[in-house]
Amino acid sequence: MQALLARSPVIPVVAIEDAAAAPALARALLAGGLSVIEVTLRTDDALAAVAAIARDVPDITVGAGTLTTAGQVDAARDAGARFLVSPGYSDAIVEAAEHAGLSLLPGVSTATELMRAQADGFDHVKFFPAVPSGGIGALNAFSGPFPAMRFCPTGGVHSGNYLDFLQLPNVPCVGGSWLTPADAVAAGDWSHIETLAASAAEGRR
């Protein structure tokens, strides 16, 4: 997970309604300089989108996000997901991910959850929902008791504040949906998405 999160300063978090558009979307992000994508399992076509990206755009690392049940782990693996992301901390998902042989970025928002994650051997976690859970102030506070923990803040992170998060020493990357606006995806405006990805990859607002 450490190597994965170091590859891109921003991980696009994408809800894909039509799997047919997934490869073109992934190619636009890759052309902009981002080589990791998280497809959220919030749509009917999500697993098909993961499969299409894994098959047609092998140069981008595709993961499945918003996992809330252990049963989704095998489905994501079978679709071709190379990593998993959950919004919260679940022992069942942790066990299923280990059994499936996939890296997991579990979600946390409290010190108690961080202690559980740390006890289970995690040193990289998703901080979600980042802004409602205290944002930069919370991450600064966590750095004291959890100096080795690294966070990927997601939730309320956008083009106007992501660079502020990336300045924190315990934040190697952020996750966000602003790189793939729904209207641009629906219109197939891949050049716009590529431009947004390039700005993020270069650390520009």
TrEMBL record:
Q: What is its EC number?
A: 4.1.2.14
Full protein name: 2-dehydro-3-deoxy-phosphogluconate aldolase
Q: Which GO terms describe its molecular function?
A: 2-dehydro-3-deoxy-phosphogluconate aldolase activity
PANTHER family attached to this UniProt entry = 2-DEHYDRO-3-DEOXY-6-PHOSPHOGALACTONATE ALDOLASE-RELATED, 2-KETO-3-DEOXY-6-PHOSPHOGLUCONATE ALDOLASE
- Organism of this sequence: Spiribacter vilamensis
InterPro entries registered for this protein in UniProt: Aldlse_KDPG_KHG (IPR000887), Aldolase_TIM (IPR013785), KDPG/KHG_AS_1 (IPR031337), KDPG/KHG_AS_2 (IPR031338)
Q: Which reaction does it catalyse?
A: 2-dehydro-3-deoxy-6-phospho-D-gluconate = D-glyceraldehyde 3-phosphate + pyruvate
Please describe the quaternary structure of this protein.
Homotrimer.
Keyword tags? Carbohydrate metabolism, Lyase, Schiff base
- Which Pfam families would you find in this protein's record? Aldolase
* Entry's family note: Belongs to the KHG/KDPG aldolase family.
Instruction: Give the metabolic or biological pathway.
Output: Carbohydrate acid metabolism; 2-dehydro-3-deoxy-D-gluconate degradation; D-glyceraldehyde 3-phosphate and pyruvate from 2-dehydro-3-deoxy-D-gluconate: step 2/2
